[in-house]
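Good morning C.,

I know you're traveling, so I'll keep this short. The sequence:
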Amino acid sequence: METRTFYPETGTELVRRLIEGREEKYYVLTLGCQQNEADSERIRGMAEAMGYSAAEAPEDASLIVVNTCAIRRHAELKALSIVGRFKAIKTARAETVIGICGCMAAEPHMVEHIKKNFHFVSFTLEPNRLFRLPSLVATALLEGRRSFVLGEDDGTVAEGLPIRRTSDHRAYVSIMYGCNNFCSYCIVPYVRGRERSRESAAILEECRALVESGVKEITLLGQNVNSYRADMSFASLISAIAALEGDFIIRFMTSHPKDVSDELIEAMRKYRGKIAPCFHLPLQAGSDRILKDMNRTYTTAHYLSIVEKLRAAVPDIVLTTDIIVAFPGETEEDFLGTLSLIERVEYDMIFSFIFSPREGTRAARMEDLITEEEKNDRMARLLALQREIALKKNLSYLDRTERILVDSEAREGEGNYIGRTAGGKLVRFTDRESRIGQFINVKITKATPFDLFGEAIQ
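The tokens, ready to paste straight into the viewer:
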């Protein structure tokens, strides 16, 4: 599929004229992953370009957009429940435009369900066509006609879309879209399309502008970020970004083990001060048989070799992973293999899920003989093991001084703040002054499996 660049289309000015003289507001609700967060920043940017201002609550908005997730069935049900609550808003104000974007809006059966049962929804828009948002809003306002954009993906990479970022010191930068891996359980290739990468010059210019504006943390995003392929490799791209002048750090996610190159690991070693010492490396299962059924295209031995290389290059690296519990056909022996590998690697954090069949994937057709009791028991055992490991890892930070980026004020109020270490660990700390958006040193005084606690060093 050939990639081409597309610049914003014409609906923006039409909507501006249609709402001119009125104080119209927009509300964007984001569900799901960091890529959805990044997409929502573009939705907000397009809304403001159309003349809308931000609303604090959906009841105050005349344009409501829900950016949905489809990674599990629970995510879809949650999205539909939320959208259902907006029916009263549409009833009270008929001119309200309600749209659904994101991965759920790229599933034909879900779009059909919305079309038939959610008559108050003005449009659905698959994630790869976000640039069409202004034209769909214009159609709803001008004609009162509903729109359902589905199956239009032609490999377009849209550059130049306006962005309203949610933070002044942290920023997401999408560098590639889609996925070619077709893991047997995953819906992403069907809803996000095939892989296509942005040109490196556009990415570098965006990152340079962010650093110049004061951004301290840039997270490079992609469904399979280290499979980035444009005019250079991912390792070359991240090295070029790290070479930019300024005091900032770079993160990236999500990676696939098959694309972790020695070149990338060397870049992490070379630019240790700029590329964060953390790596999210999804495992999914510790059984080669299950990995093969998942179509993960690596073995546990290959995976462990990557871990060894990462730790040799960056000894203090923070490793996190994804685990699927009770994949169809998983035996007790397979599951014990997963526990064994977790014990061997000692991850700092695990994101674990009980298998959820997704319509249209190969795994959804596999026979599932694992009982609910067995599924819940395995998940409980995995979480208990990981809790012990996470506590052990975090206790090693006691009495250490960590350089953190201050993110926000904590719920506890004045003098309490939240930030993250270079490795991405959450730190709750006290400080005599507010230094949100700055790097500061914090002495760690307490540790739990999930958080570190400390005091700012003045």
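Safe travels,
E.
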